Structures are given as C-alpha cells and as structure tokens.
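Q: Here's a chain of 368 amino acids. Please give me its 3D structure as tokens.
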Amino acid sequence: MKHRVLILGGRGRIGSHVALDIATHTRAQITITGRSPETHSNSQLSLGENVQFLVLDLAEVEKLREAIANSNLVIHCAGPFHYRDANVLKICIEQGVNYIDVSDHRSYTTKALNYHQQAVAAGVTAIINTGIFPGISNSMVRQCAEEFDHPEKIHLSYLVCGSGGAGITVMRTTFLGLQYPFEAWIDRKWQIIQPYSQREVVDFPPPYRLHGVYWFDMPETFTIPQAFPSVKTVVTKFGSIPDFYNHLTWTAAHILPKWLMQRRYMIEFLARVSHLMTDFTNNFSGIGVAVRSEVTGEKNGEIGVYRSTVVHENTAVASGCGAGSIAELLLAGKLKKPGVSPVEAALPTDLFMQGMAKRGIQINSHWC
C-alpha cells in the first residue's frame, strides 16, 4: 500500500520542488493543492503519474480536514507563514497524521511549538522549519555543535542570488522580516536588534566568496538556544546578490516610515517590484544559495571554531531537498519524534548527512 502525502501549496515554487523530491525518492502517492485549478496539469506532468491535484483553500476547513484524514503525511508549503495560524497542524494532531512545514517566521514557529504536548499525546511527529534556511542550515548547526563539549556561539550566514528561484512569496517574506525589531540571544540575554543592521562581510565558499550580510529575524534565533542550552550567542545574518539589493533592503528597513512598512499593501508592492527586478537580474546573478554555519565552543578544555558550508545553484531546489529528505525518513519509519520540533532538535546528524549525500548536496566542514 502506497503512502499518501498531502502538500499544501504544492503548486508554488517551493512546494513543487518538495513534491519533486518526494516523487524522486519515494513511491508515495502525492496530492498537491492550490486555490484554483489553473495550470495544475503542467505540474502533474512534470512530477509524474503518482501526483494528483486538489483545488483547496485553507479557509475551507472541512475540505482541509477530509484531505488531511486521507493522508499519512502533510507538508505545509503555503506561505508566507507570517500570515498563517497553526490550524493545519492542529487538524493533523487531531487526525493522528504526521506533519512537516517549510515555515520561516518567528510568529508561526511560536504558534506551532505551542502544540507540542498535544502532538506528544497523539503520537504525531511534527517537524517544522525544514527548507534550506531554516532547515538544512539548522542541521548544519547541529553537526557543528556536536563537535564540541560545550558549544558557546553560533553564527549563521545566508546568501541568496536574485530571487533564488523561489518566487514572489520569498520576496514577501523578506520584507515582512523588516517590519519590527526582534529579540536575539546575545551573551545569554535577549537583546533587541534592528532588522537589516550591522553589515558584516562574510567569506562564503566559491563562487561567492566575500559578501555582505545583515541581521535578519529567523526562527533559529530562539529555537537553537533551546536545542543547545550551553550556547551564549546566536547570530543570524542574511544577504543578497547583487549587492545593490542589500542597499535597497536596508533602505526599506531604515528609511521608509515604520507605519508604512507595517501595511500589507506596502509589503505586496515591494515584493512585486522586487520580483520584477530579480526576473531580470537572475540572468546575471543566477538563483543560487550559500549557507555558512560557524560554531565557537569548548573541546577538551580549549576554545575552537568549527565551520560548515553548503552551496546550491537553485535555492528553491535546495529547499525541496531539505523538506523532502525529512519526508522520506518519516515515510520509511526511520525518523519518529512525537511532538512539535524544529529540525535541529529532531533530525540526527547521520540521517541528515545521508539524505544530503543521496541528493548530491555536499556539506563541507572543517576546524578553523
């Protein structure tokens, strides 16, 4: 009997790559959803005969409940998650169905984690934040942290070329992340950080090398200190290629009035303009991604630094690999952790490395 996987938002850029990964690495019957029937046939053709399409709006609660009840695994890719409640997760727990998402926003992560005890009681494994960043990046942190007796500082840097091939939703997510100051774990205290501040030039692997990154609000800011209690500081910084996008984003964060940035119509305007711009610059910059995880800590009584890096030519494909590799493990019964967990708390490093190697993604690690 084939496993049945429901991918909400499976016709989007990220969701379709999650579906492609699962279709490639499992024999599951996949149902992808979208709010309208337009163009869905193209998605089915590219993903194979094990994929079907369902017209579904998340507001149609009874239809959503029925679709979840008929599934073995639900993967939530219908962002931006800033606007989402945790109703999908709640229904999965009620129906006893395992859950994955590619969420990337602090507010949604907080809502999801509030269902931890209910998921434990129901025996449901719910793993959140499973794309590329957060996702693969979190597992890289775990890989590095495990090299130490006491990891103390974590510095995560993310770099995306143009749109990353991830569509307008990622543009919305970027500008949503500029709306408010956020708390970061620094020197064992929660300190207020201004978004897109404190530019830092980071050395990424080739072909990217030296590029500027800025503070950015990510769920890892607070999930990683929970996973690794000895950690005193967690830094999450993000940058774009070409570099002039960084300056435009900085302007949106620091020059535009805050009341204007907090209006939904302004976010939509900025996202659409940026999407048009990246459609052009993608031809020169590509749509790749680079992640660098650097952990400082104590090992055998001495302080050391361990660094892990990854690059991929397509950000959306990498996100699909992150979520798809976890879906494969859940479907095969190789990963079971009842409750709601961020990926760094749920996925053992050996399984992470095996999943990446299977997908041709090379994680490079070394002592600095």
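Q: Can you summarize the key feature?
A: Residues 154 and 310 are 16 Å apart (CA to CA).
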